[in-house]
Amino acid sequence: MKQESIPKEGSKVKIQSYKHDGSIHRVWSETTILKGTNHVVIGGNNRTLVTESDGRTWITREPAIVYFHSEYWFNVICMFREDGVYYYCNLSSPFVHDQEALKYIDYDLDIKVYPDGNYHLLDEDEYKLHKERMKYSADIDLILRRNVDILQSWIEQKKGPFAPDFINVWHQRFNRVVNKK
C-alpha cells in the first residue's frame, strides 16, 4: 500500500470499500473533504458515481456527509432527504488514506437510522456467511460487536455525527463549498 496521508480540506478523494478477503466492494468516485485530521475525516458528496464490485454503477440521489474515524470500527453516511436526515452506518475497519483513495474494509453489518431516531441493525445473515467464508477471527468479531454497541450508544445519545449541530455545521459547510464552484 502507498504512503498513508491526511486528505486536505477542499480536495476531492475517491472512497474505496473492500471486503475482508481484499476484494473491492464499492467505490465512490468523488467526495469533497471538509475536514481531515489524523483521527477524523468528514466529507460531502452529491450525485456521485458509485461502482459496485460487479461493475454496475449508480449515482447517489441526495447530498450526503460522510464521517470516518481512525479509532472506531464504523463509518457514517448522513443523507439529506426531503423528510429528514437518514444515517447509514457501516461496521468497518478504521479508514486509511493514501494517494489513491480513502479506504476501509466493510464488515457487512450496518445500522440504518431514521429521521425519528429509530434504528435497525441490518445484514446479520450476510455477516454470518462472510464471517465463515472469509474466516473473520474471533478478535475481529469481538471488535465489531463492541463497535455495534458503541455506535448504538452514539445514536441514542445523539453523539458525534448524530448530533444535530454536527448535521447543521457540516451540511452548511458542504453547501458553501459546492456554491463556490
Automatic annotation (TrEMBL):
PANTHER family: PTHR39159, UPF0374 PROTEIN YGAC. Its cofactor is Mg(2+). The keyword Transcription does not apply. It comes from the Bacteria. Mg(2+) 2 binds at residues 108, 110, 123, 126. This is Nucleoside triphosphate/diphosphate phosphatase. It comes from Aliicoccus persicus. Belongs to the Ntdp family.
